[in-house]
Amino acid sequence: MTRITRWAALTVAAALLTAGCSGSPSGDDGENDGRSGSKGDGTALDWGRCKALGGAPAPGGDWQCATLRVPLDWSEPDGATIGLALIRAKATGDDRLGSLLFNFGGPGGSGVSMMPSYAGTVAELRERYDLVSWDPRGVAASEGVRCRSDREIQAAESSVDGTPDTPAEERTYFEDAADFGKGCQKAAGKLMAHVSTTDTARDMDRIRQVLGDDRLNYFGISYGTELGGVYAHLFPKKVGRMTLDAVVDPSADTVGHAKNQTRGFQLALDNYLKSTGRDPEEGSREIADLLERIDAEPLPTSSSGRKLTQTLALTGIVLPLYSQASWPALTSALRAAEEGDGSKLLALADGYNDRDASGRYGTTTHSQRVISCLDDRQRPTAAQARKLLPEFEEISPVFGAFLGWDTAGWCHDWPVPGQHDTPEVSAPGAAPILVIGNTGDPATPYEGARRMADELGEDVGVVLTWKGEGHGAYGSGSDCVDSAVNAYLLDGTVPEDGKVCS
Question: Are the CB atoms for 337 and 345 separated by under 8 Å?
């Protein structure tokens, strides 16, 4: 893919949730529900009870897990294999349509962990679909990659400045990036070169086959929209009913994505500031000034001697912008920081960085970087990033410098080459694909929806617009959006291209 920058295109619920289950069946301990038949690939799935993962309880009720073996390298289908962790809950009604496969974004988000928590949002869809998700290759229970220890992650958080101001800080910034890549290579081994979005799209078609579906019914959110677009390009005749929500712009390159996110988060911040009765320009300047003071002198917190750095403060500001319901938490955290206490912003940053109270970090950001840097072959230099900074800071005095530097830092000195500048998502001959854009989306700005529809092709991409706030539209409080999506997925009713829900 064209690289998603440091702030992931991930459903905010997935970023915050810690519940999950193992992608492996429980073996002799689980009640086997039989096998899912395959469609000519000789593979079947043994579904069993899910195990607990990461200290969280296993999902109860009707949830089942299984492991699917797929080729490590799709160019060598009879070679080495890897295991993909899957989870499902069967349809509750009698008029079953098949399976509905979900990807919640990232890249690097665990579908196995997220799917049970999202089931309430899609309860109406479950009446006619088996709900299915998985951990893509390189993620969590599917050969998940961990590039650093918890201690090393925390040390980098306190010592690496994401907006370097001096030659020494710049050296530390890029040395840390290179070190992270070396850690990923050591942990991933041969897998490092086989976790691309294209690899995962091919995995999706194998999942479709073993689930027994003639066509893939799919719900992709955030980065999952790009994954869906790549699948549609590779397998246009296998596209069933596909919904893409919170759409990644497939036409944007590395710098274009960074600019999109800079604009998107600044727009969300402006809307947040307006909701508090403040002038957006003045409020943004005040927040930028606060961040400069934190950069000079990190704030004390109540978290075991940890301090709030500028980079952690930025991350803490970003998280609540994913959802309008979290705006009051941002108000409280900013007020505390202005008073000299960084505890609340740090807690928000920890939520985004998947750090629990005991200091353990999840692996989402590790997988995100491994996947995105394999997808993207563009490698802007430090000098190029410096030249971009004025433009980025003009777009946003709060987020511009961080995302400008990130264009060079994210994949700096990466051990494996990237695959393309922008992903190919054209899908001539595919069935209509519903593309949903939210005008207030910070992480995947609205313009990406129209561009995705255009690139999918005439009579394929159908745009549904929601004039809302937050990351994503379905399940966010719009009866108009939910009804249109449900009618499409359940009845095959394609809304008029350009339909607007306000």
Answer: yes
Long-range contacts of 51-54 (CB under 8 A, 24+ apart): 51/21, 51/22, 51/24, 51/26, 52/21, 52/22, 53/20, 53/21, 53/22, 53/112, 53/113, 53/140, 53/141, 54/18, 54/20, 54/362
Q: What is the pLDDT of residue 18?
A: 32
- Say if residue 107 is preceded by a cis peptide, omega within 30 of 0: yes
pLDDT in tens, 177-206: 999 999 999 999 999 999 999 999 999 999
List the catalytic residues.
Answer: 222, 441, 471
What residues have CB less than 8 Å from 489, skipping those under 6 apart? 100, 125, 129, 217, 219, 241, 243
Separation in Å, CA 497 to CA 439, 494, 500: 16, 8, 9
Neighbours of 457 (CB within 10 A): 18
Residue 21 has pLDDT above 90, yes or no: no
Is residue 289 scored above 60 in pLDDT? Answer: yes
CA-based nearest residue to 425, from 225, 203, 214:
225
Give the closest residue to 243 by CA, choosing from 498, 502, 501, 492.
492
pLDDT exceeds cutoff 90 at 13: no
Let me know: does 460 contact 427? Beta carbons within 8 Å.
yes
